[in-house]
Amino acid sequence: MYAARLCSTELGVRSHCAEGEGDSPTAELAQQRNGFVVSNDSDYFIFNSNCRGYIPLHSITYGEANEPRLEKVSLNEVPRIQFLVYRHQDIAKHFNLPPPLLPIFAALLGNDLVDYAEEIQLPKNARKRYFPGRVEPVEITRIGRALSQCSSLPADTLPQIQDIVFAVLPSLLSKPSKDPSIITKLAASAYAYRLISITTPSPAFPLNPRSSDTPAQATSRALYHSTYKSSHLSSFLHHILKHRTVVLQGPLEMPEYKSPVIYLGRPLRQMIYSILSFVVGIDDSPTQSIIEYCRSGEQLHPTSIPILPLSPTYISLQYLPPPSPSLLTTPPSFRYSLFLHLLRLPPDLQPTPIFPIIASLTHLILHCPSNRQWTTHSLLCATLTASLLLHSPTSLSSLPRPKEPPRKLHLHLTSELLTSLVWINTLGGSLLLSQKWKGINWRVYDGKGFHSLLGIKKEEEIWKIVKEMKREVGEEVKAVMDYLGQVRASVGID
Predict the structure, then answer these.
(1) pTM of the predicted model, to two decimals?
(2) Three-state SS for 189?
(3) φ, ψ at 305 (rounded to 5°)
(4) Apex 149 CA angle, 144 and 153, nearest 5
(5) Are 68 and 74 in contact (CB under 8 A)?
């Protein structure tokens, strides 16, 4: 989300953060701004939105050769983009249906919410479903023809949709349904396609006001809400408040080792759980825990993570500020110092552009398994890559390219570094430190540059490259490496 917000801000694109599923707000925004919906979600064939149409993401091609990826197009080419546009009005017209009946049409065919295809389709055609969701063209035509008999009926409210389903279903079923709730479920599925105003608060959204909140919790919840609406708050936070469950989508990792989202991400997430519980409260549960699902191969394994009290687990009572409406209303300088304290960083460390790499590499040194610690070689490669990105990004292209693909271990180092960067950023977001981010640049990783340097086996060769770069790069890299050497020494690493 951070990367998407960063890119949209630089391009001057306004963004909207939905309080629930993004389908309806996207369709409505496209309608309000006379734009297109660009997605890979086929639901946009159905939404009754008067926008310019739906563009499947995979249909977009670039350049004269219609390349599927923009980076394959030469900068010297005349800009050219091509894509397919589908208009729900044209789809409805093809089946002789008014657009408001398309959601009922989709429900009868089968969608993500309900699938009665085995009952609605004729037996001889139902047997031809070689994969879920496939509907024989003859069945699509038959269902569309039956539904067109109700074209004059309104389909704006749930009762009206139920009436239409009740009227058309008997002509489609070859025998009575086994499910007595089939009409209710089909109607609810169709009603889910309605456009809901983006200004309508979602009752299930956990950052909306709650009558049970204390004044401090109400203040904190309102601050989180406004920050989320401005695209500066990770959706992970409100997901935790709503579900107390998370499925961890870790990056590329080595299956023979424990996942970095566990040994590197979990200590940071536990701090986030403590902060959320302290400032807004996480809904009471018998275990006062968060369930984390982590993938191993094709299996998801749940782990109950206790929600620890912020004090005294991470900070002493004396460290907390004098009574205030909320921890989130304390001065940003205090929250930043608390952030440094939680990450075990020096209290005088300033929020400079290189801060994210310092924080992440420190976290790696403190939490990586002792038998697989980052070497000074790996630390130097990550630091130099970050410094070049900040001060001399064009120099990255001059680095010697490795002759072989990245080694398996090097890919795992990338996974560890990105895991640390992501969760440190999210931890800072839980303390609403977006204002303190002004001096920090989170774009400190470049895959090609990092793996090019990792491919240089001798550390002294990398230091030679450092000396060839701008003076500010050399000074910064040396200062960071000196500091990381102190961190390594503090935990007994030679």
Answers:
(1) 0.83
(2) helix
(3) -105, 115
(4) 110
(5) no
